[in-house]
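Subject: sequence -> structure tokens, single chain

Hey, anyone have a minute? Need the predicted structure for the following. Not urgent.
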Amino acid sequence: MLETSAEHSTNNSDFRQATEASPINAGGRIFRQFGELMRPARTARSPTDGYVEFGNMDADRSGRTLGTFAGVFSPVALSMFSALVFIRVGFIVGNAGLLVTLLQFIIAYAILLFTVSSVCAISTNGAVEGGGVYFMISRTLGPEFGGSIGTLFFLANVVGCGLAVTGCAEGLVENFGPSGTFNQVLPDGRWWRFLYCSLIATIILLVCLVGAGLFAKTSVVILGIVTACLVSTYLSFLFQGEMEVPIPSENEIVQNATHLVNGTYTGLLSKTFYDNLYENYTRDYSSEGRVVNFAITFGVLFSGVTGIMAGANMSGELKNPSKSIPIGTLSAVIFTFVCYVILSVLMAATTSRFLLSNDFLYLMPVNLWPPFIAIGIATATFSTAMSNLIGASRVLEALAKDYVFGRALNFIIKGTYKGNPVVAVITSWVLVEMILLIGSLNTIAQINSVLFMLSYLATNLACLGIEITGAPNFRPTFKYFSWHTCFAGLMGTLVMMFVINSVYASSSIILCLLLVIALHLFSPAAQGAQWGSISQALMFHQVRKYLLMLDSRKNHVKFWRPQMLLLVASPRSCCPLIHFVNDLKKGGLYVIGHVKVGDFAENETNGDPTVEEYTQWLGLIDHMKVKAFVELTLAKTIREGVQHLIRISGMGAMKPNTIILGYYDEEVLYDFFDSENSPYHTSQFDENGIKLFKFRQQGEGRRLKGDEYVSIIDDVLRMQKNVCLCRHFHRLDKNLIARSNHVKYIDVWSINIFEPCSADPFNVVSLFMMQLACIINMLPVWKKLEVRVFLCETYGNQQSPTSLDNMGLTLEPSAYVKLSNLLNSLRIQASIHEIHEWNRNDDFVRHSVVLKQFTRHADTDGPQITDEILNKSRLYMQRANQIIRDKSDATAVTFMYLAPPPRTSSPNFAEVSNQYLELLTELTSELPPTVMVHGINAVTSTTL
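Reply:
Had a minute. Here:
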């Protein structure tokens, strides 16, 4: 039962003494010395214990060379221009009209701004390492959600790279293809375009293999070139006169209808502006004539502005990520929004709808110097593709380093050269090649938009969750956000995902959920990561709220459930009992309590001795796979410790109402962890040849005396808790119950054998036993067993069903009938078996009368219990034990009525308590697993 585990003491190392000679450091030195005096035994903490070590920050950030403009603003702006700015804005305006186009830009940028505010909040709340958005989500939502969203974000970057490469190839063909503006030297066709895309992707691969630093250095120059090309486009709209522009030959829809048709560029005209205000959807000649709609145009538009994470993806190379990411990202978003709005308005005011819808590259011939557009397309798409490939490789590297997919990505970690993840870049490039097989830029754009939106949704969800929980450590320096902006960004991305393409959106969400489940079950990162998970913070927030709402004053017997506190000395010897109580709790509270004997004052120099053991007990919970909490306490005596546990276990209305103890006997304890034949066998709790959870060996004396054990039982009842004493549970084998046809019954002996009475089957204790038997019978393994209630008739209660025959008088119903009616009203399916031994006038009954004298003497100040009374009581218990054993051959577990123990206030308590235990031992000898029960509160209800 309750014993003290072996005392564990660890020699804790002292803090390292720092020498500080300068006068400047004197104040800090004195303060630290004062702190050492206040906590002389505190052990040195590891970096994972909650302390942040600032001394090595410079070393940690060696290799971080990028500032805000080159590291964030330029990559974000270039990624948000991408293929959209020179190739697809006209397509959107021509189909959706200027008003809807501006509305789409406002929606897209509102979603982006809300998401950027979430990104800025998370990124300014702590150190951001490599992996960008994946790093933020995984460290906020936990490894399962972080790993799944990180995987999809990796795929989004791969698709985005493919999209930009396709746009670059499209511009190349439009310039040098069969109807090229400059020179018709390149053949055109599906596989020719795939070849061009592959060559461009290979060039990007070679540049990325050199490293992200080269891209960052050149991104500023590239952004300057793209901006110059864009300015030339604005000037062309203002100064270029009216002209005819030929429709390209690959537009087979127009060419088949009328050969060599031209579109009209009108210059600035109010009539053209008004004609382009409203939507007029046509067919997309680049996607086999598919009819364009709002979803397609928005999908294409959003795919072009998904680059807000480009700066966050470079977090591993930034000097100051928490400062650069907010400033650089927000300024790039505002800059690109203004550029797009101006471009859309000028296109609507200068170009006929026919030309906008049927020539995606009409900007080139209308430009004052056409090569500007070719250069702009090439640089914008090339830089975007490079940014996405770098981002994909960094996310893949972070997934590998975090061991999200175990050893499957070890080759990524090993393939790093001078900080550049070479193998990750090559792997990402291979996947880009696969994406290029899709061919159509508009189709790739929809996939790209949905995947990026899902990552934005997760980012907003992460920020929303951590903001709602009110975690004290969430103190971002970026203040322009709230849960409203997070929620708006989350809902906006969710809705627009389905607007763009419901099939792609549903598929990506399902894939994300499947990844979450798979990572939760199999990922080493999910099982061992110490990043923290927002799920724990959210659960804490909700549990606290509902615990406050759970009012113990509103408890009703109809909704009673057992809330168990199992007191354990050593789990090595009581594994089956731990599992049995887990079955018995019926969804209620289950606490495993352990008392460690000691004096806290004597342990002051070594800290709390229960702290280290607590982790071991949590490991036990995991190994046993039970749904239980652990409570440990340190007390001078076991009795005092049990009182502590009963009072402190649980919280609010969720407090234990039933205390379970192992039995106090001299049986040899069995080590379930050490036996290879045991289902609980494990070496997890053997450290360097030392067995954790020590228990009493054969021949070793007890640390707990019999009278102290009985005192604990009395204390439990005085504290208004139900009590259960469990014996022989080392014999319990649930596997045998499941597969054997010999084990058939769960028995309830509804009589107080110490003082039999005809009212026993109907009092609180017996009803409590029946309730427990009914609960255990509800579970799958136990459901096959039959519950038997033994009705032990006593003198004066002789009526039975047979005794009512041939009587002309109406007699009071027998105990059998009353018990049968009671079981029916309680909806307990059980058979009743009558035992008549207590109703016979023989030595057995006379001995039971003598036992009544024993119980009365035990609780009064009367004369001492004589040896004669004690011997006759033993004989009575042995006879009762034989009766029970004769009925228990096929019994899995037995519930027995526990007579209340003698009062601790009795003058001869020590002697009587040992005699009480001796009689209980005689009563339960050689029985199946037995639970001796004493309930004090009503737990059953017959009302609806």
